[in-house]
Design a protein that fits this description.
There is one protein chain. The protein is mainly beta. The chain contains three helices and 17 strands. Strands 1, 3, 4, 5, 12, 13 and 14 form a seven-stranded mixed β-sheet that branches. A four-stranded antiparallel β-sheet has the order 2-15-16-17, covered by helices on one side. A hairpin with a 2-residue loop joins strand 8 and strand 9. The chain is flat, with a radius of gyration of 34 Å. InterPro entries: SSUH2_homolog (IPR052789).
Amino acid sequence: MAAPPAASIHTPHYAPPAANTFNIIPGYEGAVAGGGGACIPPPPPSVPMPVPEQAPIQPDWHIPSISEDRAREAFAEYVSSKCCYSSDPVKDGVITNMESFNTYRYRLETFVESRSAEWSQEPYTGQPVDAGVQPAPGPWQITAQPPAFFQEQKQTIKVPFTSSVKNCDLCQTKGKTPCTTCNKTGKINCTLCNGSGNRESGQCVDCRGTGRKKCLKCSGSGSCKCDTCNGKGKLLIFININVKWSIEKDEFLAQDLSGLKVEKLQEVSGKELFKDAQYMVYPVRGFPDGSVAQASERLVKDHQGKYAQTSRILQQRQTIELIPITKVNYKWKGNPYVYYVFGNEFKVKAVDYPATCCCSVM
């Protein structure tokens, strides 16, 4: 049964009204106050949806390894960014071998629209009341303007024919609530004499010896305007639909044999070898790395099964990037060392850099 927003968030003295004082709106039985309700599943499509097509596969999957000069340049930039690294291994080190370990990153993105309903309220100041005039449209019958594909956005829409007027239970329709500053007395202790009525020089002139002063918050009345109904005594209660467009994303990184830690590859981009965007995509076929094809099969199935249950899939996009990794073996002072150059950004990771010093900040 739909429940209206609770005003108890404003004061601990609020007692929620009985549930039977609120309308039951068909299609919105799961609406709750303040949000947090479960997503409302969309109805089945009214027209046949497009059948996904298998995108063509590119034959060229490999990128030539970088040159020694480019590897040295990247290494020099890396070392210069480290305050405690000497540049001697860059200038005097001798590259003995360079190995390419290109790896693939598969990414699947599903752009979805989800909807949830919540009871909302605002002070009643004469707004139109339309509950019961005609049946309220269903949660997915309400028109919302979606953004461009893969642009996340939120929108709140008031549901027509759900608005009704209710008494404000916080103030019992009086429009006022007890002042918490003076505890309904209209007076507070004098701050100059701490409520004693006297100071070292004699009687406190600020409170005239009474030790009490008029409460400024309530102007001495002992009550304040009700924050919930803004002093009106009544509330307009209605249902809002919260529409959310979001991107659900999963990635798979093919096994890398270079020895570079996988988390480093999250910092870089690769060369886009394959891209496919449709209402629903078809799993990748014919890719030379079998693990990528298997990941595509698994993730496409997972996304289409999982997100279609609670939201409306608007578009899917899958990409395959080739992330270049070059393992550079070099010698300095007769000892072997290794560094990696990876990604389109030519980032470097040096393993056990041989010429470091201790720095201290004065």
